[in-house]
Input
Amino acid sequence: MLTLPNDAVRQIQWRFADRFDLQMLVQSARGVARGTVARLVAAGERNTHEWTPGKNGMMEAFDSAGITAAYMEPEEGGFIAGPKNLALALAAFELAWVDSGAATASLAGFLALSPIHERGTEEQAKHYNRLSAPAQPGEDRKPWRGAFVLTEPIPYVGVDTNMLNGKVRITEWKDGQEPWLQVEKRGRFITNIAFANFVTAAVASDDPRIKGTCFVILEETDEGTFDHGSPTKKLVQQLSSTGDPIFSLKVPASRIVGGYTVKDGVIVPNHSHTEIIESVFRRTRVPVGIMTASKLLSSIEPVIRYQRSRFRGAENLTPGSARYEQGIQQREDALHRLVDVWATGEAATALGFATARLFDELDPIEKQKIAILSERGVQGGRAELKALRESGQQAIEMLSLEANDQRRKELAADPLVQFVLLDAAANVLCPATKLWNTGHGANMLREAVSLMGGYGITEDCPGFLGGKWMDAQLEATYEGPEAVQRRQMTITMTSEVFLAEFQAWTNEMRRIAEEHPGVGAGALVPAMQLWQWTLNYLQNTTDPDGRKLYHGQRQGVTFAMADAISWLVAARAQILDVLELEARGPEDPVVSEGIEGTVQFFSDLSQVQAAAAAGEVSRITGELVFGYSAGDEDASAASNEFLGLQNKVTESLRGSRLAKDRAASTVAKIMIPEALDYPA
Ligand SMILES: Cc1cc2nc3c(=O)[nH]c(=O)nc-3n(C[C@H](O)[C@H](O)[C@H](O)COP(=O)(O)OP(=O)(O)OC[C@H]3O[C@@H](n4cnc5c(N)ncnc54)[C@H](O)[C@@H]3O)c2cc1C
Output
């Protein structure tokens, strides 16, 4: 590979080569990122917590570039029809390439609308989307901005929500008329709050005439107090606004997100706040994971430039000499570490976009599922679980059949079977994206920063790497810190349907390993087997005190297994992207030139990453299987079985360091532009 990967390569890898609408969105988001946003960062706008005219100008630039409208339906002023998960992930990728605070500022508006989008009534969705859409030509209005208000001052809710201090009660309810509600809510760390015109806020009933919890929509002009609060003194993502607002407002009951029914004189919201949070975060956590991934990939070019030019200008150093031309890239470790950063960035991006695409597939099928079940008189709750359990068994049966089996084809065409399969995968891949991309990604951004020496931790560092590293910690924290993702995975990764899918993924990797030996699938197969064997072992084994090993309360076991599988699914996604490029690249007029070298380089990176993933899984599972054992007889039989599998993992690493050497030699020669295309 002679140059850094271009857009045509990325469009194939991330599967939007045939989506002109998405390509346009990428170009316009990139324009704002490398123009307006980069100039703000370079001008030191990150050095103030205040909401400045410059930062406000950035929001307007999002509107003009079509980024705000990317969330809307065409009839609401948008330009993308159908599901928009991949679209929003791509926009977040472009913005975070320069500054993830900018990406957060854009996503937070969508987050505010998400409760209404996912569970709001049709009128609510239409009304607030229309208000939030940028003005059309000839229209004289400013788009509304929103904020999502869940988190409260300690000791109440973070994202892991049971104690909700925000309250709602009835102040007025005249016969035959809409009830009026009094809402009291204090928020903590609320994004976009400096300028929000409306918020969606989580509250609990403080009135026997209202049942449970809900989300309510509050507007700036409602009667009472809408205090935007003072700005949070953040160390990160200062291009977004964050603060602690206070609301004490009177609103009509029609502001309850998703509406309500009245039963025996009690208002029963159609959706509790937890139900809404689940459906919202499920989608919005994916672009957050993409943000960190983007920053990892954005660090490659500035690091290469720094490494090569490190010694230029020194006395007696002549152009053409190895020291002049290659600088620190003469040293193997500098190249190998950069390859590790690059490989991680590829895996994180592959996983994030694969998950975004999965949600694009899931969205219409979820609607179909709701329609089918309601036709059968089944609506949510236990009845739905029961109905879907049967489809779950059919999905498992389907996965056990040969590809050309007629029964398999019939089952695969059943929308409910499709739903349970996509749903089970999404329930693991979404938290895995958020957890691995941001958590491990933040660690690897530190590696990138370290490759720039002292420069890395200055404001002058090209690519703003120091800021990007710090910002990643926020990506790992908001919308649920790592523990929340791990807890969710503790449950979802043990579902019968998911484990059957995981087995099918392992078989798929085995086939790939035979047909494409250089992409790292060979290392992934035994690691995936080791993970699944270990899960089964942990679920059926107790510690020396007779306590179950795999148990929700035993985070030392369950969280470690969640980490391990995240490495695996990321490496798998990366391998699938390489295969896509190999299959489609030769047909593409731009990509086909030099395609062999490009595929070779990406294969080497995925082999490096698969080896790292396999090593990590081997270490984690080894610690769990041996670390909780007191060395009795039964355990040692299992230990031998484990060691047999673990040996296979070690053997499968054969050649992976040679792949790293090859990738390093490409990185040492790859051409980069004279200067970064955004200012330092
Ligand atoms: C800049 C910024 C912007 C934000 N924007 C918004 C916003 O727009 N809207 C909004 O509602 N919120 C927002 N938040 C809040 C954010 O979502 C929370 O800060 C985050 O979810 C973490 O919650 P917490 O701060 O209460 O941390 P805690 O829950 O106190 O977590 C502290 C530590 O304990 C661990 N932990 C927590 N629970 C468990 C458990 N059960 N098991 C094991 N370990 C656990 C966590 O992983 C973490 O390491 C924002 C926060 C920041 C900093």
Residues 209 and 265 are 7 Å apart (CA to CA). The first strand starts at residue 146 and ends at 149. The mean pLDDT is 96. Residues 108, 147-151, 158-160, 189-191, 234, 242, 474, 477-483, 555 surround flavin-adenine dinucleotide (CB under 6 Å).
